[in-house]
Specification:
By secondary structure, the chain is of the alpha+beta class. It has 8 helices and 10 strands. α1 packs across α7, α4 crosses α7 and α6 crosses α7. About 6% of the residues have low confidence. The chain binds a DNA duplex through loops.
DNA sequence: AGTGCGGCCTGTCCGC
DNA sequence: TGCGGACAGGCCGCAC
């Protein structure tokens, strides 16, 4: 399940193989993703150069140029089962390999997404003005994300702090796993109403989010080779998780058993003893 | 405006 | 062993 660290790891892994390469052809085998892959995308992208790969939240942005001038952006989201890999153009596609971006260097950027929660869209103008990106909160690892930002938005909000933290308008890239881990690290009970979190605790939470995500990205760097080896699965890395999927296990801090409850339709793992 | 929830999908796991 | 059902997940879009 690609969360922000996985998406960023993917971006870094693809960059050396894709940046500056010409698109020989775009091949779409399955258009039915979260939104249909736009008709005519093949013609729009063929001959373009992938000038850069950026990331915004969990979206990857492939900046295209034609004759050196901006020619639009491919916007890709991996949903929860998606992966992007660089393979040799001759490698036969497997089940759920929906899109190939065939490159001039004999390689191929291959999108695989069994559950089809992901998307591949084209944006002609400024991608950050696109409805999907326009309303997003700050990047969690940027300076704009801090305790003051969280405290300001939380004023008067009754939603559980966990739901608040997973709201993309508040901060991007904090999915269920990292929300659980960050709240445990910060000692915050996931059900506490966001409007009733003391000011100093927002500073702590912001720092914990940054630490958890940065550590995961660092871990991802150790498995970069898996992404281009072209044999098996895209090497999602294992991260040591303190609470997520550890119901009943002892809390690493106080040894009390980890509880699991549903908050906002999501499984929430926490320690009743040291999260308040 | 804020909040909660349904729906999109398939692979995996569990119990019968 | 085979089968059905629950569940996991991000996140849009709707209803209140």
């Amino acid at each position: 399940m690609p969360e922000l660290p996985e998406v960023e790891t993917t971006r870094r892994a693809l960059l050396p193989y894709v940046r500056g390469e010409r698109i020989a052809a775009l091949l779409v085998r399955e258009r039915r993703l979260r939104w249909p892959v736009p008709a005519g995308l093949e013609a729009r992208t063929a001959g373009c150069v992938v000038a850069a790969i950026e990331r915004r939240a969990k979206y990857l942005l492939l900046r295209l140029t034609r004759n050196g001038a901006a020619a639009g952006t491919l916007l890709c989201h991996l949903g929860m089962s998606g992966s992007l890999r660089v393979v040799r153009a001759t490698e036969p596609p497997r089940l759920h390999d929906h899109v190939d971006l065939q490159l001039g260097n004999g390689r191929c950027l291959r999108l695989r997404d069994p559950r089809r929660f992901g998307c591949l869209l084209f944006i002609a103008g400024d991608p950050h003005a696109h409805p999907l990106l326009r309303g997003l909160g700050p990047e969690p690892l940027s300076a704009a994300f801090d305790g003051a930002h969280l405290a300001g938005l939380a004023r008067g909000r009754s939603a559980p702090v966990k739901s608040f933290l997973m709201d993309g308008g508040v901060v991007v890239g904090v999915g269920n796993i990292y929300a659980n881990e960050s709240l445990w690290r910060a000692g915050l009970h996931p059900r506490r109403p966001a409007g009733r979190v003391a000011r100093a605790r927002w500073d702590r939470l912001a720092n914990c989010v940054k630490e958890v995500l940065a550590a995961a990205i660092e871990k991802g760097g150790t498995t970069l080779r898996d992404f281009v080896r072209g044999d098996g699965e895209p090497g999602y890395f294992k991260i040591e998780l303190a609470v997520y999927d550890h119901a009943g296990d002892p809390c690493p801090r106080c040894r009390q058993p980890i509880r699991v409850e549903r908050i906002g339709q999501r499984s929430s793992f926490f320690c009743v003893s040291c999260q308040r």
